[in-house]
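Reopening this one. Same input as before:
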Amino acid sequence: MATNFLVHEKIWFDKFKYDDAERKFYEQMNGPVAGSSRQSSGPGASSGPSGDHSELAVRIASLEVENQSLRGVVQDLQQAVSRLEARLSVLEKSSPAYRATAPQTQHVSPMRQAEPPVRKAAPAAEDDEDDAIDLFGSDEEEDKEAARLRAERLRQYAEKKAKKAVLVAKSSILLDVKPWDDETDMAQLEACVRSIQLDGLTWGGSKLVPVGYGIRKLQIQCVVEDDKVGTDLLEEEITKFEEHVQSVDIAAFNKI
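Same output, byte for byte:
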């Protein structure tokens, strides 16, 4: 009866086996715990140090390989620097300044350098050499060059301005010239008006326009330059012909 009862009960008889397996799994993952220190001291514990030694050997080998590659890079850099130094020395020897100073340094002996007179003459030679090289030039030469360039630019500007066409302001004027009466010779009156010649004055077309009672006026066109000829000057010149002209009026005035 009791046996049948135990058969139907759910009892975990082999739970200790699963506990031991779980403990061993965590010991392998995280190392042995304090409670299992005695078991770790057995024969199976010798596998840990051998694994550490193998890992250290791998790391040392990788470091040696990296060190060798770095040494190769350093050697390449040293060779590149040496080539650059050789090239720089060649360029310095081929420069004009080095050529100017080279003969002086070759002909001077160590004994002569030790003598006081040669030491006094050395600064003078250096001054002569500086004057001969004169990398920056003197201020006087720069002033002359600047003055020459300024004069050249002013001359070019003046020539360009002279070639450029100057815009002249002009006006078109239509004048009404009235005679005294119907007996005035209009052909003679027009000839008198056209006889006026001024700088900047150009006469144009003309016609006779009836006024009334048989009287006709002269309507004449002209073009004037505003800076040279004005309307007051035209009226004054035309009214000088008193025998033919009674008055002068401006019928139209337009800017061109």
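So the earlier flakiness isn't reproducible anymore. For the record, The radius of gyration is 60 Å.
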